[in-house]
């Protein structure tokens, strides 16, 4: 019977997790306004030669900038536009984009290269701040609320069932007044 309760509680947690998991992003999201300047951090050391890639929806990935560190200063190799530059930030070569345009939106990755060994850094999704992003947050918290509500309902049903079963077992084990009287008359 214990396995029934364990399975029920486990099902409740899985149900809640299924509402949460689709909304956990695979990359960090950074919001920006058109025309502003944004700096995308890289979690790879500046000791790596760094290449920045952009993936727009329905397009192949594009190299937007290559950079390295020489004599303590960042040096840019290739850049797809003069609006893209490199900046030292937290011991890495960050990508700085000035005058952000719609075509700049997308998923960015930094790739480090040391002795022909490539390492892919954390991704950053560059999105424009808008009503759509607040709608996403509303949907996210709505799903979290529904998941928690389902978990609470499953737990309430389990507890109610458990209490009802406990009361039934207690009632069956406790002798009633009529059965005690009946036992006394049989013994006389």
Protein traits:
2 domains, Immunoglobulin-like, TCR_complex_component, 3 helices, alpha+beta, seven-stranded mixed β-sheet, elongated, three-stranded antiparallel β-sheet, single chain, Ig-like domain-containing protein, 188 residues
* N-to-C order of helices and strands: HEEEEEEEEEEHH
> CATH superfamily of the largest domain, called what?
Immunoglobulins
- How many beta-strand segments? 10
Shape: elongated
CATH topology of the largest domain: Immunoglobulin-like
Number of separate structural domains: 2
Oligomer description? single chain
Strand fraction band? 25-35%
- What profile does the largest beta sheet have? 7 strands, mixed
Can you walk through the features of this model?
The chain is an alpha+beta fold and 188 residues long. It folds into 2 domains: 1-26 and 130-165; 34-128, Sandwich (Immunoglobulin-like). Helices cover 39% and strands 32% of the residues. The strands form 2 sheets. Strands 1, 3, 4, 5, 8, 9 and 10 form a 7-stranded mixed sheet that branches. Strands 2-7-6 form a 3-stranded antiparallel sheet, with no helix packed on it. The radius of gyration is 31 Å and the shape is elongated. Residues 20-24 have low confidence and may be disordered. It is found in: Cell membrane. It comes from Etheostoma spectabile. The chain crosses the membrane at residues 139-159.
